[in-house]
Specification:
single chain; about 290 residues; alpha/beta; UDP-N-acetylmuramoyl-L-alanine:D-glutamate ligase; nine-stranded mixed sheet; four-stranded mixed sheet; 9 helices; 13 strands
């Protein structure tokens, strides 16, 4: 079965000292969902500028449709300035008030969402005031039985507590990492530090169908009302970790839609994420 999956949010360039690379979780997620057999689309915006046209060309080259990525005549294409410090650590500065900060819930986009089997979104999609209500409208346009997966993706200082809490309530599947779960727990008044306990508490609090907790090299935890799966892939030679979490999300979602056992979903998602870590970039070719 081919699932209709919609990713809403940021499309952008990471402007590195060595050159520019395509960034943005929705694109990585949609790419991996398509590689796994889904009909995945992105809803976003780019500027009518060189970076925007080049970004669309890149997506097309990777087999990603761009039918729902609108071209904005007023705002520029999103970009992140990346500076590497003396210790080799990168520091990211997201440019403000760019095209994807001005999402529009037009009839074309709402129709896509009304026919979706799953919608995936994160906090960056609603960082700008102009995009918050359109984002909410598109999420709520999905059928009642559709999956609404909130891939938290916290990027300080580009989120506000009240917005995060609203997005938590709109979801029925939550995906986050072991740093983000502690931040969100503190927002909700829980100062516990054990991620297993926090995952169980958060899943029950919002009655999520599935909670996905990624723990980097320590693998992932998948949790439903009835069972929990903990899995860690074999160590790999890491080239970079770009897109690994997005690949995990895509594989976990497809496995869940297919009704696969939780252990199988976790292993498939974690092994795919590990493979992505052995490749350059967030959209590597599949073997």
């Amino acid at each position: 079965m081919t699932y209709q999956i919609v990713a809403i949010g940021e499309v952008l360039w990471d402007l590195l000292p060595t050159g520019k690379k395509v960034g943005g979780a929705p694109g990585n997620f949609a790419y991996h969902a398509r590689q796994l057999g889904a009909d995945a689309q992105m809803i976003s915006r780019v500027g009518n500028d060189d970076l925007g046209h080049e970004l669309l060309d890149f997506y097309r080259s990777r087999g990603l449709p761009v039918d729902f990525i609108a071209m904005d005549e007023k705002y520029p294409t999103g970009a992140v300035d990346v500076v590497v410090d003396s210790n080799g650590q990168p520091h990211y500065t997201f440019r403000d008030d760019v095209a994807w900060d001005h999402l529009v819930a037009d009839e074309k986009s709402l129709t896509l969402c009304r026919n979706a089997d799953a919608i995936c979104y994160g906090t960056l999609a609603g960082r700008g005031t102009a995009s918050r209500e359109p984002l909410r409208q598109m999420i709520l346009a999905a059928p009642k039985n559709a999956i609404r997966i909130f891939d938290v993706n916290l990027r300080a200082p580009h989120y506000k507590q009240e917005n995060v809490l609203e997005l938590l309530e709109l979801a029925n599947i939550l995906k986050l990492n072991n740093d983000e779960i502690r931040v969100i727990a503190r927002m909700l008044g829980n100062d516990a530090t054990d991620v297993h306990d926090l995952a169980a508490w958060l899943r029950q609090k919002y009655d999520y169908k599935l909670l996905i907790l990624t723990c980097g090299e320590n693998g992932g935890i998948l949790m439903t009302e009835k069972e929990t799966s903990v899995y860690r892939s074999d160590p790999v030679n890491v080239v970079d970790t770009v897109g690994a979490g997005d690949a995990f999300t895509a594989a976990a979602l497809i496995g869940y839609l297919n009704g696969e056992p939780l252990e199988t979903i976790n292993k498939t998602a974690a092994d795919l994420a590990a493979y992505v870590c052995t490749q350059q970039g967030g959209m590597p070719d599949y073997p």
